[in-house]
Design brief:
Helix content is 30%, strand content 22%. The chain has a single domain, classed as Vaccinia Virus protein VP39 (Rossmann fold, 3-Layer(aba) Sandwich), CATH 3.40.50.150. An 8-stranded mixed β-sheet has the order 1-4-3-2-5-6-8-7, sandwiched between helices.
């Protein structure tokens, strides 16, 4: 995803530490303190421009959400939305999703969302896919026992790979959608990409999977 540079983006981020952090290592194990209420914590890894995470926070006030994005020019769009909405259950984190164990304690997260992640289609880039086993191990480490991972994409190849990767890792597939908008899902909040691709008639693939308790 290539985005235009937004003038003043870094300054806006620096001026709003109540909503966004660029280094959250000091908050590891203390994320409840960043929110108005102590509630379940759901994170989205790769939040893009934030339509999904903002929509989820508005629709579910009894859940605390953290949007995680690496690109400054993307997360500034989420911050701009949050400066208007001022949602007490939404925080933003400008960091690399590969380093989540630096920012979250073991068992601190209740649910993980991956939406329209970069498919990295070339085999030599397989380790960069957010459903590769090393990423799954990271999510599992910071997640509560039995936590769920929800994944959406328009890329069939990535979806097929992810089904296999999650299964080989030992996760339980709770539900799978091969055409989300045809079969429907109550309370579905769309991302920007989802609106774009579904509007062109492309099927949207989705799954819900659960980490199993390791003996």
């Amino acid at each position: 995803m290539r985005l235009r540079n937004k003038p003043g983006a870094k300054e806006t981020i620096a001026n709003n530490p109540q909503y966004i952090l660029t280094d959250a290592s000091d908050w590891k194990g203390r994320w409840d303190e960043r929110f108005e209420k102590k509630q379940p914590i759901h994170i989205e890894v790769g939040s893009g421009k934030g339509q999904f995470i903002v929509g989820m926070a508005k629709a579910n006030p009894t859940i605390n959400y953290i949007g995680i994005e690496l690109q400054t020019n993307a997360i500034i769009s989420i911050l701009e939305k949050q400066l208007v909405e001022k949602l007490p259950n939404l925080q933003l984190l400008l960091v690399d999703g590969a380093d989540l164990t630096e920012y979250f304690a073991d068992g601190e997260v209740d649910q993980v969302y991956l939406n329209f992640s970069d498919p990295w289609p070339k085999t030599r880039h397989i380790k960069r896919r957010l459903t590769y086993k090393t990423f799954l191990a990271t999510y599992e480490k910071i997640a509560k026992p039995g936590a769920e991972l929800h994944f959406k994409t328009d890329n069939r190849g990535l979806f097929e790979y992810s089904l296999a990767s999650l299964s080989q890792y030992g996760m339980v597939l709770n539900q799978v959608w091969l055409d989300l908008h045809e079969t429907g899902l109550e309370g579905n909040v769309m991302t920007e990409y989802e609106e774009k691709f579904s509007g062109k008639g492309h099927p949207i693939y989705r799954l819900e999977a659960r980490f199993t308790d390791k003996v």
